[in-house]
Design a protein that fits this description.
Helices cover about 40% and strands about 15% of the residues. The strands form three sheets. Strands 1-2-3-4-6-8-9-12 form an eight-stranded parallel beta barrel. It has a two-stranded antiparallel ribbon with strand order 5-7. Strands 10-11 form a two-stranded antiparallel sheet.
């Protein structure tokens, strides 16, 4: 078994193509990017020159697939109309940017209900998804709902949440899931021992379908299982256990799914280099 394509989240500072250059420099086979600043509502327009340069360099370097992550300010579960509408507009803009860059998958946190309650929050999300899918039909970008730890009032910490959202939004082929290992661990799921690992994927396949899994974020966790905390850690330095990552990179059912680091970064990329080397060393391990 060759193993999955491994990579990390890379900065687009300067221009989007710089993320490809950085990723290539440390041996990434896949990368994740923001299409603009994740902490601001407004951003400079993406120019034709930037989009053309990104597509050309991606083809030259062979980094595939490329996944984009939504801005942090977006909240599709917001009960207040002004924030919900602003979030919807920002997500649509980012999906248009994805299409121009040739990025096929857009990862987004489902949203936080901020006190309105889980069911009202989930309803806001699926309504937003329907509108987003319709508004971006021409671009064809797939939305990947990211699993969350359930911190605060964030939704998506149970697989049932994601399954319900996909069903309510019409079960479109353009809806999928991004699994974050630190988030599902914080939400209470176990992936380390064989029985728990098999049980988790059986539940995932029954509720959602493994064919809808579009990306995996490989992150260890500083927070305990079931804590609902969301603090990423370097692979092997957290509480999840290295065996969980060994199982993931050796699972033939997941070989087609890009696995992307979102672990802490220092002033350089040495932590990403170390994590990628460790993950690759785990491939071909025999696990029961």
């Amino acid at each position: 078994m060759r193993g999955p394509r491994l990579g990390a989240h890379m900065s687009i500072a300067g221009e989007p193509a710089n993320a490809l250059r950085l990723g290539h420099s440390i041996g990434c086979e896949t990368i994740q990017i923001f299409t603009r600043s994740p902490n601001r509502w407004k951003a400079p327009p993406l120019t034709d020159e930037q989009a053309i340069a990104f597509r050309a360099l991606r083809s030259e370097l062979g980094i595939e697939p490329i996944v984009a992550h939504s801005a942090y300010l977006i909240n599709l579960a917001a009960p207040a109309d002004p924030l919900w509408e602003r979030s919807l507009g920002a997500a649509q803009e980012e999906m248009v940017r994805c299409a121009r860059l040739g990025v096929g998958d857009y990862v987004i946190h489902p949203g936080a209900h901020t006190g309105s309650g889980e069911l009202p929050g989930l309803r806001r999300i699926f309504q937003a998804l329907i509108l987003l899918l319709d508004a971006t039909a021409e671009g064809g970008v797939r939305i990947l709902l990211e699993t969350t730890s359930g911190a605060g009032t964030h939704l998506g910490y149970r697989l049932e949440h994601l399954a319900w959202l996909i069903e309510q939004a019409g079960a479109s082929e353009r809806l999928g899931v991004c699994l974050d290992t630190a988030h599902v661990f914080g939400a209470g799921y176990e992936l380390s021992d064989g029985a728990s690992y098999r049980s988790f994927w059986s539940e995932f396949d029954t509720l959602i379908g493994i064919e809808r899994l579009g990306a995996i974020h490989l992150n260890d966790s500083k927070k305990e299982r079931g804590s609902r905390g969301d603090r990423h850690e370097l692979i092997g330095d957290g509480l999840i256990g290295i065996e969980a990552f060994a199982r993931l990179v050796n699972d033939a059912r997941l070989a087609h799914v890009p696995m992307i680091l979102e672990t802490p970064k220092g002033p350089d990329l040495r932590d990403d280099v170390r994590n990628l080397a460790l993950l690759r060393s785990l491939i071909k391990q025999n696990l029961s």
